[in-house]
């Protein structure tokens, strides 16, 4: 389900450029994205439906690189229809997630930020095989890239 939802979101709202811009995709899907200066320090992001309109709030103290994943994750809560409100802390972004809803949102985020077909094109057609170059091309953490490459069968 996360894979199909992410593919749909990409097909409808992505401009085709790397790195994938989750902020632009969210806005194109009519999701309001903004920093919340009142957000508690331990919170990274929040998804809420307010008067039927989806909103994603981010913690302005976090680096841009982390916010990309947070926005993609919160967009996953929206796309997967997980409910009216979710607050995420760093615990929700652990590589091993026991909470199935957070697991789905994390998988959605990886699928959105690192589309499998784009990885395959870079590796097979453009011969980009250096791990760091791939990580930079998609503007994701090394952990996110490692998880995605494993899922795609490029590493074990």
From TrEMBL:
Coiled coil residues, start to end: none
Residue stretches making up the IrrE N-terminal-like domain:
48-150
Superkingdom, according to UniProt?
Bacteria
Note the InterPro entries from the entry.
IrrE_HExxH, Rad_response_metalloprotease
Q: What is the name attached to this protein's record? A: IrrE N-terminal-like domain-containing protein
């Amino acid at each position: 389900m996360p894979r199909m939802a992410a593919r749909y979101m990409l097909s409808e709202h992505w401009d085709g450029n790397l790195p994938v811009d989750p902020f632009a995709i969210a806005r194109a899907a009519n999701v309001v994205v903004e920093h919340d200066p009142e957000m508690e320090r331990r919170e990274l992001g929040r998804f809420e439906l307010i008067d039927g309109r989806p909103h994603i709030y981010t913690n302005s103290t976090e680096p841009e690189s982390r916010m990309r994943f947070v926005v993609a994750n919160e967009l996953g809560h929206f796309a997967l229809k997980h409910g009216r409100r979710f607050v995420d802390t760093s615990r929700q972004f652990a590589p091993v997630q026991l909470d199935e809803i957070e697991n789905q949102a994390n998988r959605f985020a990886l699928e959105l930020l690192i589309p499998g077909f784009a990885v395959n094109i870079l590796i097979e057609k453009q011969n980009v095989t250096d791990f760091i170059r791939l990580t930079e091309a998609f503007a994701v953490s090394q952990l996110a890239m490692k998880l995605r490459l494993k899922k795609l069968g490029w590493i074990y």
